[in-house]
Amino acid sequence: MNDSEFRVLIVDDEPNIRSGLAKGLVKEVDSIEVAADPHEALAKFEETSPHLVIADVRLNSDIDGIELVRRMRKLRPSVAVIVITAHGTVETAVDAMRAGAFDFIAKPLDLNLVRQQVKKARQHLELRAENVQLRSRLADAGELSGIIGNCAAMQDVLHQIRQVAATEATVMIHGESGTGKELVARALHDLSDRSDGPFVAVNLGAMPETLLESELFGHEKGSFSGASRQKPGCFEQAAGGTLFLDEVTEMSPKSQVDLLRVLESRRFNRVGGEQVLEADARVVSATNKSVTDLIEENTFREDLYYRLNVIPIEVPSLRQRRDDIPLLIEHFLQHFCTRHRRPLKHVASDAMRTLVANQWPGNVRQLRNWVERMVVTHTGDVIEANQLPAEVQLASKPSSANARSLAYNSLAEAVEATERDVIAAALEACDFHRENTAKRLGVSVRTLHYKMGRHGLH
Asked: Is the predicted pLDDT of residue 386 greater than 50, yes or no?
């Protein structure tokens, strides 16, 4: 909660229920407002910003309690809602929870039970507020959701995260592969009012088009061959939380249309289903490509881009934040030495200079993988410059033609060595996923396998 006063709004078309709840909850809350219908409730909701709403499902109005919950949660996702009804069916409870209700109580009301649920909701909101404040303080100190960086470029990213997280704005994260775009998405979630909801990440680049619709929106039993049961999609799984769409520019034209429709209407259907479901998830997307180039090539929809790119965040490459490399290396050394039960290792100063000068085409992911390899394979306590892998030493040297040509006896040898270094770096950057590596290098998987064998890369 943003302040110490705990405010409650009671919505019921029966005067006795409204007055009875208002009198019965005086000791549990600081401020109580009542409303006889949903329209009055929405007006008071925007005027007083209650922390908790207690609403009847059956209201004598064109808006029922479930729809009221949806609208209030859309206006402010942090609000807690307790739904009450005389029609305490399982279906009603499920609908209420899907709409974002905190809890469900059936009539006739037990005032003691209502008081308990109100106390529970208050404790929940206070705990969530404390967690958000803690994460905010960690973000101010440069530590948030695994993001490590003291350089000006990363401090700017952290500032943008703090500025945007508490809103419902759609965010698009731009940056090269391996820069930590998913960490930025998680930080946005952790500092948001949705932080106690789920964080669901889906890599659209690794998803065949035939499965993507089912993965995003779910499917009904029997909707296609192999659909042996009902399956909720990512939008359902992320309800009340954040849905992270990585490599969003890899979607097919049809999938782009489907996603645009959901972003505009905030509603969707499972594959093979007729029930209309609410898309109650904040969408954060990411790409490592120039979207404007893709729009010019007519491979990505401009209207979808504007929907996704309301707030753009640019994550710098490791080459643009070299001052952070020693900090990252020390962090990864401590992490992997603990994880693999190895004595803590250190990097000698001359080796650290070499590592800082390296190009790191795979960015933080490549650096992380290299540190883990050194922790596992290096036997000493100190990593010296002459013990660094050849590709790291080579890539950190001046890139002039004369400096590099001295290392080879012929042009063919230089081309072979360069090709090996490029393939090795791409493999590491892609976590040794061969299909992604082949895609990154612009070759077929078969060609990649052949070249890996020729260069002894296994």
From this structure: yes
